[in-house]
Amino acid sequence: MAVLARLAGCDMRMTMRWYGTDDPVSLEYIRQVPVVQGIVTALYDVPVGQVWPQARLRGLQTLVEAEGLTLDVIESIAIHDAIKLGLPERDRYIDAYCQSIRHMAALGIGVLCYNFMPVFDWMRTNLAMPLDDGSTALSFHQADFDRFDLDSETIGLPGWSMVYTPAELRDLLEQYQALSADDLFANLVYFLEAVTPIAREVGVKLAIHPDDPPWSIFGIPRIVSTAADVARLLAAVPDAHNGITFCSGSFGARADNDLTDIIAQFSDRIHFVHLRSVKRTDERDFHEVAHNHGDVIMRDVVAALVANQVDAPVRPDHGRMIWGETGRAGYGLYDRALGAMYLAGLCDALQRK
Ligand code: DNO
Fold first, then answer.
1. Catalytic (active-site) positions
2. CA 213 / ligand 1 centre spacing (Å)
3. For 117-259, where are the E strands, in sequence order?
4. In this predicted model, what pLDDT tens digit does every residue of 83-126 receive, in sequence order?
5. Lowest-confidence region among 137-141, 208-212, 344-348
6. Largest CA distance in the chain
7. Residue from 39, 122, 222, 247 to probe ligand 1 pocket by mutation (most atoms less than 8 Å from CB)
């Protein structure tokens, strides 16, 4: 296996997300971004709740290593609704989850990013909002979101689950709406109390991704949106293997989240880092911008990561679509590559000062 290279003088490894062989951005292109050493990916076709076969994971790793890169992070193994809802059959799905963790560990993959957002993962209302410079970016406007018709089959947004029919979706939402935030939190703790000992035994760091956007949508609880949420979660399952993904864009969508303070408070439990910026235009409205623009002051964020000696892989998170690139919203090559270079430059300069 290739030796993990690190950013010059800095404890962070630069990685990039790759969606597998269907991704229009190939590994061959990713390897040409000078600072990228690691890949973040997943097996996208294993149904939620099933064990990830080790041989399939090894196949993925072989493709990555053939390009001189290393498979550093799994993002994500999705968590079955039975676990999030706390249904009796959850233990079976938790066992399967633990087995998948063992399989990634056996291949030396040491970080697992996951989320506990009910039904929807990340959510936006526009995938191609035009910015002043002619590029496009992802945006979220609460008023647009509130107008969505749940029964419409035509909705297709990132995070929008395509696996459910509208009727199934309604049913699922009702089940989650009946849960309080404390119930959901208890279900997360139940899951982590079962999974963390396995993660510790095999040496995998768990990195929960914060809610995106970091507030409740559809009246269903969200429990990883603020520093207080993170503190509660890390205290409930204090093992260091139970950690977080620090996502500057997710936490940064709320003005009351102090990013550098979150880094300082939880530095030793940050196992993965997503860096992108957002421009907030109202309390519940924001759009994404280039890594060096917007309300996330990236120099301060990277300085805090360096000063607090966060030892975790980093990836440039969503980019804009620029230079006519088309493809997976948020995950084109060009702007993420610009972001990676900017982030690496900041890290390098800060470290060498
Ligand atoms: C969005 C991503 C999220 C993330 C999951 C982790 O671009 O950051 O979809 O992968 O929330 O489970």
1. 209, 247, 274, 317-318, 331
2. 11
3. 126-130, 136-141, 205-208, 242-247
4. 999 999 999 999 999 999 999 999 999 999 999 999 888 889 99
5. 344-348
6. 58
7. 122
